[in-house]
Amino acid sequence: MTPSRRGLTLGLLVCVTAVAFEGMAVVTAMPAAAADLGDQELYAWAFSAVMIPQLFAIAAAGRVADRTGPVRPLLVGLGLFAVGVVVAALAPTMLILLVGRFIQGLGGGAVNLCLMVVTARAFDPAERARIMTWYSACWMMPSFVGPGIAAWVTEHLSWHWVFWLILPFVGLGLAFMASGLRQLPPRTDADAPGDPVPLHAAAAVAIGLALLQAAGQRLEWLSLVWLVVGLALLVLNWRRLMPRGYSPAAPGLSAVVMVRLLTSGTFFGVQSFLPLMLTTRGTPLLRAGLVITLASVGWMLGSWLQARPWLRLSRDQIIVAGAVSVASGAALVAVAAWVPASDLLLTTVGFATCGLGMGLQSASTNLATMQLSSEAELGRNTGSLQVGETAGNALFVGIAGTVFAALNPIAATQVTFGTQMTLLAAVALLAIAASKRIGFVENHSLTV
């Protein structure tokens, strides 16, 4: 491997680490941030404020990547992500924190999309499965130490410092991969697909998701207006962001996108409220962070398994196994949510099982999308996959937030969190059905 290729690989891994640390550490620190800043009714927005702009950024970055290559949108994304981190770190109010999170979402969406496009163009199919394992390792390394570090920093310094810890990773990643990015062959408009994703459709879907969450957070008559308008924006524009021939019930790429949407929505919906559920029951923040960490161990294990040549399964069968694992784990967490006296072990095992499923399906849906896409539409279809993931995250975190806003003032905590987790487990069952519609996708790891 040449020095520039090594630098590119290392830089990609460091960038993944930066985004992963931001996600895992902030989940742990958010209960303390909400307690400090107030406006706890906006708690779910701290996550949706990242996910919703990500959707637009993914579509925009995919369009630019198909026309000029992934380097330019990657650099813009890294810059926006860093600015958002600084704004959040300095936030004196929950509203300013949400602004910072919004900017992080714009940058993070572009970065996530471009990392996948760079991977597809810089590595051959057999290498990609190994790269996905390394990416998962970089997601999981912050997960092992991130929640614990975030909890310690929050308790001994301030939650603000959790954000400051992210910035060095951004600079290091850019420095390492600069030489390798310069050697990627440029693309021209002649290489681009004839019908790129319309950016107004991406903006409309993002606004629709925001309106749906706004409707759920304020349960009043005006919320019905936001609900109707939000649903209309989604229905009218969703298909334009998807691969050619998309239908929610179709096989192939359509089914791959639906699995990613439903499993990711389940996992991150559970993850967003699990620390709050545990700390509400008196579990120390460090121990709640450990539950998140062990789920990350499961994710890493799943990602490692999907790349093993002795795992004699086709790529689509691995995706089915991942969906089943996510659904099974979410069901265990739901049982624990309904029974406050249940041992913490039940919650831990359940969420770790969810993580195992995410490791299997996340890497495998990325690889399936690369294999089922032409070179000209790689950016668009990768964007569609990530738009599905982001929309699923925003939608189901928003639904979980609606349940919390509606039940928390009037119901026992086990009813509030039990209802949340049961609904999310039901969503994962739909993912199993979608995974069985994908059809055969070759597993190139078997040829290594």
TrEMBL record:
Keywords: Membrane, Transmembrane, Transmembrane helix. One of its GO terms (cellular component) is plasma membrane. This is MFS transporter. It comes from Propioniciclava coleopterorum. The chain crosses the membrane at residues 44-62, 74-96, 132-153, 159-177, 197-215, 221-238, 250-274, 286-306, 318-339, 345-369, 417-435. Residues 8-445 form the Major facilitator superfamily (MFS) profile domain. It comes from the Bacteria. GO terms for molecular function: transmembrane transporter activity. Gene3D superfamilies: MFS general substrate transporter like domains. It is found in: Cell membrane.
